[in-house]
């Protein structure tokens, strides 16, 4: 007899521990951007910022820690300027590719 696992009993997945290099961050953001969802992008940037230290990323981005938490909470739609500043603080940049690539 197979033992069934209830998905509701599983812990929430936290990507932060796996985002320990610029390559991992870039790959994660590239996949997230493919979803074309500003809220998902904000949550992903929040995961990455937590992995690297919210206080340090906020300072590098030139915004307060509280403003960073607010901008990157799930369900938010951060301004492009905020996304760009956080990406720069993380050592990555957004890149444009043709859709047929």
TrEMBL record:
Gene3D superfamilies, per database record: lambda repressor-like DNA-binding domains
InterPro entries listed in its UniProt record: HI1420, Lambda_DNA-bd_dom_sf
Superkingdom of origin organism: Bacteria
NCBIfam families: dnstrm_HI1420
Protein name: Addiction module antidote protein
């Amino acid at each position: 007899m197979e033992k069934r696992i209830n998905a509701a009993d599983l812990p929430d997945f936290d990507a932060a521990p796996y985002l320990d290099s610029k390559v991992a961050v870039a790959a994660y953001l590239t996949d997230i951007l493919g979803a074309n969802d500003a809220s998902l992008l904000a949550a992903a940037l929040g995961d990455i910022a937590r992995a690297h230290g919210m206080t340090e990323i906020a300072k590098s981005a030139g915004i307060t820690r509280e403003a960073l938490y607010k901008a990157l909470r799930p369900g938010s739609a951060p301004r492009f300027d905020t996304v760009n500043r956080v990406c720069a603080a993380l050592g990555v940049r957004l890149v444009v590719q043709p859709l047929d690539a």
